[in-house]
Design brief:
Layout: E1 7-12, E2 26-31, E3 37-41, E4 71-74, E5 81-85, E6 93-98, E7 104-108, E8 113-117, E9 126-128, E10 146-149, E11 156-160, E12 166-170, E13 176-180, E14 182-183, E15 193-194, E16 197-203, E17 208-213, E18 218-223, E19 229-233, E20 242-248, E21 252-257, E22 270-274, E23 280-284, E24 294-299, E25 305-309, E26 314-323
Parallel strand pairs: 14-15
Antiparallel strand pairs: 1-26, 2-3, 3-4, 4-5, 6-7, 7-8, 8-9, 10-11, 11-12, 12-13, 16-17, 17-18, 18-19, 20-21, 21-22, 22-23, 24-25, 25-26
Bound molecules: (2S)-hydroxy[(phenylcarbonyl)amino]ethanoic acid.
Length: about 325
């Protein structure tokens, strides 16, 4: 097991042409089995103040579903489009992950649903939640934010959502198993309380699920099988909001925070952390353009990192240089 004790530095790969892609609001990123970059974006739809009523019911159904392909598969080096799908299915894309059988899992905050899509199938293989009906029981979500599948057990985990404060576990064939989490009470946010569980990172090596607890500006990690709270990772440099988290086999955790509120010092940036200690190893920002609302992060084992931004409608690529001191531990 290599230890990350070397001098680790993340820098934008400025030769990546993907920054010039004309995208809609970029909500989710994932890497497929060949390390191709997969982008989940909103085409010509936007999530703004008029998208939902006070009961979280989507107001723009009249627009119909997004007619562009919302799922794009790109060559990670030259950003060439390899495959695209997901037209006429979604209204407001949000989370994206790819399971070990190369199925795409997505959430749609307008539909309040989770979908499992085969790489080349038009019809979803599985749907959870009831279209356009927000709720908080076993088969209703409220603006579900992310979904991820345990590669060992096949269990499905959903972070639910902007208008709920829970993580739900489903069986591999979509049956409700259990849930945990509650709303953050006034004052201090306690363990297991959320204020927008916004992004999930599943760590099979440690049987843990880490959650970007967005408005509490922290990461919380839980035991996969029981939902038992294990620990919180929080740094002053996160500022108020922590938007996304992603784990890379080998022990690194990547995250992005939110723009600083007026007068606040902590800049919007990417973070690389040592998963075991929670300590920050490096932080990074783009060389070209600037982060506006970085919304998802994904990284590959060679420490290539992609950041998708829902406001800048852009995807940056970063490369890592690491002088490794090889210590066998
Ligand atoms: O957070 C928001 N959006 C992003 O997370 C996103 O996923 O677009 C949002 C909040 C209030 C109104 C409109 C959008």
């Amino acid at each position: 097991e290599k230890e990350h004790t070397g001098d680790f530095h993340v820098e934008e790969a400025v030769e990546w042409p993907g920054l010039d892609l004309k995208l809609g609001q970029v909500s989710g990123l994932a890497l497929d089995a060949e390390n191709n970059l997969v982008i989940f974006h909103r085409g010509d739809h936007v999530w703004d103040e008029n998208s939902f009523d006070s009961k979280f019911v989507y107001q723009q159904r009249g627009l119909g579903p997004i007619e562009q392909n919302t799922i794009l598969v790109l060559n990670p080096s030259n950003a060439k489009l390899l495959h695209s799908m997901g037209k006429s299915l979604f209204y407001l894309p949000h989370g994206l992950s790819i399971d070990k059988n190369s199925n795409f899992w997505v959430t749609d905050v307008a539909l309040h649903q989770v979908f499992k899509l085969g790489a080349y199938d038009r019809e979803p293989l599985l749907m959870l939640g009831v279209a356009l009906q927000p709720g908080s029981d076993k088969n209703h979500f409220c603006q579900p934010t992310d979904v991820t599948v345990d590669p060992i057990t096949g269990s499905i985990y959903v972070s639910d959502g902007y208008c709920n404060s829970r993580i739900i576990q489903f069986s591999p064939n979509g049956l409700y198993v259990m849930q945990w989490g509650e709303e953050t009470s006034l004052g201090r946010a306690r363990p297991g309380q959320f204020r927008i569980p916004h992004s999930l990172a599943l760590i099979p090596d440690f049987s843990q699920l880490c959650v970007a607890d967005r408005e509490n500006g922290r990461i919380q990690c839980f035991m996969l099988e029981t939902g038992e709270f294990i620990r919180e990772i929080k740094h002053k440099s996160f500022g108020r909001e922590l938007f996304a988290v992603s784990y890379v086999p080998g022990g690194l955790l990547f995250a992005v925070n939110g723009m600083p509120y007026p007068g606040e010092a902590e800049p919007v940036q990417g973070f690389v952390m040592n998963f075991s200690t929670g300590e920050i190893i490096d932080t990074f920002i783009p060389l070209r353009k600037s982060f506006e609302m970085p919304h998802d992060v994904v990284a590959s084992e060679d420490k290539t990192v992609f950041i998708g931004d829902v406001q800048a409608r852009a995807v940056w690529k970063f490369a890592s240089t690491e002088k490794m001191e090889h210590r066998s531990v």
